[in-house]
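Teaching note: in complex prediction, the entire set of molecules is handled at once rather than each chain in isolation. The prompt given to students was simply: 'Predict the structure of this complex.' The entities are:
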Amino acid sequence: MYYLYNYGAATNVGISHYQGVEKPTITRNVNRLEELGYLEQVKGKDNREKRIQLTKFGITIYEDVRVTIDQFEQEILGGITEEEQLKMIRMMKEIRNNIMK
Amino acid sequence: MYYLYNYGAATNVGISHYQGVEKPTITRNVNRLEELGYLEQVKGKDNREKRIQLTKFGITIYEDVRVTIDQFEQEILGGITEEEQLKMIRMMKEIRNNIMK
DNA sequence: CTATTATAGTTACTCACACTAACTATTACC
DNA sequence: GGTAATAGTTAGTGTGAGTAACTATAATAG
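The expected output is the structure of the full assembly:
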């Protein structure tokens, strides 16, 4: 939902690349979120692919939950300066890069 | 195995507290490591409890794997100074404390 | 233009990890 | 000495994700 909210509609494959998981995982999760009314699937111009997007309801839910998550993040980051957070993010990216090669 | 290596023999409950998981999880994992010959169980003085410890073989395996893990850690931490690592550990501890309360 | 190959997505099956509830056996305590 | 607590196990369940095999559609080589 984060991805769809920030980058717009996407295909199953697109999401699975973004998430770094296999396609069946996305199929399952999308189905669940669709049943909850958060997502909808529309045909792409290529008849094989389906474009997945947030519904109005899904957008509302996402924005709601986003607030809660942001608050939580603020709480658990108490006592850690903005500068330190940025440094930590940079280190983690570096570690990820190191793992990738 | 890390725990047993560094702190000596322990009970199921002791390990589960250390790991922060439930007892059945430890039972399963200990059984698996025992089948592999890495652990052995001996009676404690309390007849309810079993003290779990590394076998000679288990110690060898642990030390072997330890080397590999240490090397791996060195690699993925390339480009990150000792000082930064310590800072990151401190931040993570702080985040954990924040989560706990 | 057709036959082969590639792509998007789904289905079925499986694995790993850990949890809860319920149980046995032993020990502690009032 | 009987109830409560503790150590460990067993059985059943849930979550998350992977692989293999499949359908359907599109792309491309001959």
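Point out the following to students. Residues 9 and 53 of chain A are 4 Å apart (CA to CA). Chain A touches chain B at residues 75-80, 84, 87-88, 91, 94-95, 98-99 (CB under 8 Å).
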